[in-house]
What does this fold into?
Amino acid sequence: FLLTSCQMGGQVSSSRFLPEIKIECRPSDSSSCLSTSVSKYMILGLSTNSGFDCATQMSSFNTSQFRYYFDAHNQASLNWDGAKVNANIYKWFDQDQFQLFTLDQDNYVLCVLFDINGNEKLDSGEPYAQSSGSLGQDYILIDTWTEY
It folds into this structure.
């Protein structure tokens, strides 16, 4: 999904659409990924800063301030399908909570936090994921987790 040669204020710009994010977490991936976890949230963020370290940044969040660390973000409620916790994220928002569809830069770092205790920051024992790549694919699957 490459959008090219858009005329914006007299300048030509290229942007890539933000992808859907598919999240899967099995009990074997993390002890937090249980059917009882569906009342919890995932916090997601995309950064175009190639040096962005998810664990460092997410553990320093102030409550409800995570959106200011990312170029695009969202929160997702979780589902249980009988074998794993999962979520699909289709929408992205900017720091002012306006919906985003594209980013001007192709490369990204994606951070996903399984917010077990509900304080909107990464704490000891909480699973998180970091992925990087280039925008343009239909979706990104997150199914590998690290406990902080």
